[in-house]
Request: fold
Amino acid sequence: MTVHDKGQLRAQYGLLTNIAQEAGVSLSTVSKVVHRRRDVGAATRTRVEELLARHGYVRPWEPDPETPRVIIAVFRDLSGPYTLEVVRGIVDAAGELGVHVVTGTTGDRPVSQWLKECGALGAVGLIVVISMLAEEDQRRIVEERMPVVLVDPLSAPSPEIPSIGVTNWSGAKDAVQYLIGLGHTRIGMVAGRSHSLAGAARLHGYRAALEEAGIGYDPALVCSTDFDYEESLAATLRLLAAKEPPTAVFAASDAQALGVLEAARQQGLRVPDDVSVMSFDDTLVAAMASPPLSAVRQPFEELGREATRVLLQVADGRPPASPRIELTTELVLRTSTAARRGDA
Reply:
């Protein structure tokens, strides 16, 4: 260390000591605010930040304020319609906030590696979409207070790691209640995997709607797949070939719903005359399907904006009001659903 460096350190120490005295707090509290630690009260943090700004203190490790901040958004893959919609939401929101986005997948490298990349790329934080965090990764995020936000995590994270999703249970329930209102009582479901929080919530919403209507739950009418077209196609072919096939099918994602439509076509069934199809997501492909899909719409743009907003908030040392944020879904009706035929 040079004499010049030592002089700078002494000057910084003296400035922070003066700020601590002026704010009426300890030097360690000022240090916590400087390093954006979360364990400082909001009023104290505000007072210290105001004094830091008034005295012209600049955190030496932070980039030039004229340089746009960078965030990393990591996805399981970049191929499905859901992923593309969420990417668009995050990129659009970041653009409005003057933030650059680096995207990647967990197929290329695990989340643990992306956590390391944050430092290497000078990113302020990481958004992780539809992935499962290992306990070791969660522990590192919490202990090192790394700015990380999860979107639709596959498993429940530590309450200290904020997550964002939608009202999966009530959205699924609304969809199935609508099908019941059309006269359908044998309603199949192509559900997500049980380990997926979103998939499980949508299945529970399906069951809740049946129960409220006094319709018994039939496990033979439910098949679980990844949120995937090919798996859904194979599963729905088996479902529609049963002795008593469903007159309506609720799919837990648009990709699965496209598999349902193709299975119906291969079985010589008309949608919605022979079988109604309801989806969950309402990505761009839902409106372009043949026939266009009725669907539970996820607010993708708002999801991206909220994930970006919360990440920047956490990066600035301000924890969100709630560790779990759920955005409201809505039912969008198109021509893939219709009243059950009288002879069905």
Remarks:
- The first strand starts at residue 70 and ends at 75.
- The longest helix spans residues 3-23.
